[in-house]
Amino acid sequence: MTFDDAIATLEPEAFLAILVERLGVRGVVVGSTFRFGHKRGGDVTMMREYLAPRRVRCVAVDHVADDGERISSTRIRALIRAGDLTQADRLLGGTGYEIRGPVEPGAGRGHRLGFPTANVRVPLKLLPKDGVYSAISRYDGRDHAALVSIGTNPQFDGGVRTVEAWMRDFEHTIYGRELALRGLRYVREQRLFAGVGELTEQMLRDRQAIGYPSYG
After folding, report:
1. CA angle 126, 177, 162 (to 5 degrees)
2. Residues 192, 115: one domain?
């Protein structure tokens, strides 16, 4: 189901009815301070009272803290927006934050600059702040070191925010295939250079972030 305005404006009881009657849930696990329904009108007590006679188990779990601060989706989103993927990944656990989507044709500038990139079409998803990141790209079951540019390409008067990945030692054309990016670590901001030559020199220096020797 898509969480849209129609769902967001449901009264608490109507929301719970969807869980039981349409989704057929057998159990619900929520945080101990979970609120739901229009204007956050429902709480864990209401949920338990509604679900118990319908033989649906409701479990409320305590919050988990890190450095004395509660781990929450709000906290993790703030870290992602700030480009602090190290902390975000730690709080998320597992493989952490990931960008995943099909590769689509771009403007072809990367090829002309000597850095052919895979343009990842990202579904609606919170992206880190604009900049260049080191990352691990995964394609067809194999990992490749990568540099990822997130932003509007100010050097070329771009107006659309894009995600472009340059993968080390990778020369395949993979349009239409899925590419996953994880382990993103901020390298530098996106900015306007004096010319394309200066941009290219900076891109060569950026490669140090994924193990290339220093340049210049």
Report:
1. 35
2. yes
